[in-house]
Amino acid sequence: MSCAFDLAHFHELLDAAEAGGYRFATFNGGPKPGQLFLRHDIDLSLEAAVELARIEHERGISATYFLMTESVFYNLDSTLGRDALRELRELGHAVGLHADHPRAPADPRFDRVLSWHNPDPDYMSEPVSGFVNVMNEPWFTSGRYRSDSNQHWREGCPHEELRAGAFEWLQLLIHPEIWIYEGSTMRETMSAMLEAKQNDWLTLLANDRIDLS
Ligand SMILES: [Zn+2]
Ligand SMILES: [Zn+2]
């Protein structure tokens, strides 16, 4: 099995988790043995988030999507942003705040659950007033956390351990952009994302009455 960052291997990861007997759970109780906390930090693309959310929904899986309110890459207050948030909810996923430290305002659009964007170690695992910080105890525990950041699993792709049921429970951080857009390096994957965004933006420009003739 090749551990490519693509949708085929995303399905294989989910297959492995199901074969290992894991149950998909959100951060509102637990962690209990056998639970898999599928977490998505949305750094760059709402389109990729929604696409992955639909795939999970078709498989009967619920994840937690962490969305930014201060991103330079997307706007949650735009039509597209509001539609994305509504669809994530309609598909049965939990939605939390992906926050820029130190700002973590209460916001009725989100569940009271938070992940920091690109956190520094000195505050990453500190409690956050009014929120469950998923990088705080008990959610962030050595050996029970895996992240795909920059297409690099520091402790290896977890598919074999998932299939074997080797984790008591696991928090699995998947960035949708990395898996939805194709490329064998981050550079290639980001280029594919930018190409898709360019096409989307050309449509948005035309809709905004910009003369593209
Ligand atoms: Zn793998
Ligand atoms: Zn982030």
How many strands? 8
The biggest beta sheet reads: 8 strands, parallel
Uncertain parts: none
- In helices, the fraction of residues equals 25-40%
On the 0-100 scale, what is the average pLDDT? 97
Task: Write down the secondary-structure element order.
Answer: HEEHEHEEHEEHEHH
Small-molecule components bound = zinc ion
Which structural category fits the helices and strands?
alpha/beta
What is the distance, rounded to the nearest whole angstrom, between the alpha carbons of the first and last residues? 48 Å
Task: Chart the SSEs and their pairings.
Layout lengths: L6 H13 L3 E3 L9 E7 L4 H13 L5 E4 L11 H12 L3 E6 L13 E4 L4 H4 L7 E2 L11 E3 L11 H6 L5 E4 L2 H5 L5 H22 L6
Parallel strand pairs: 1-2, 2-3, 2-8, 3-4, 4-5, 5-6, 7-8
Helix pairs in contact: 2-3
Bound molecules: zinc ion (2 copies).
What does this protein look like?
There is one protein chain. The protein has 213 residues and is α/β, with parallel strands linked by helices. Helices cover 35% and strands 15% of the residues. The protein is built from seven helices and eight strands. Helix 5 (159-164) links the parallel strand 7 (145-147) and strand 8. It is globular and about 60 Å long. One zinc ion binds next to loops.
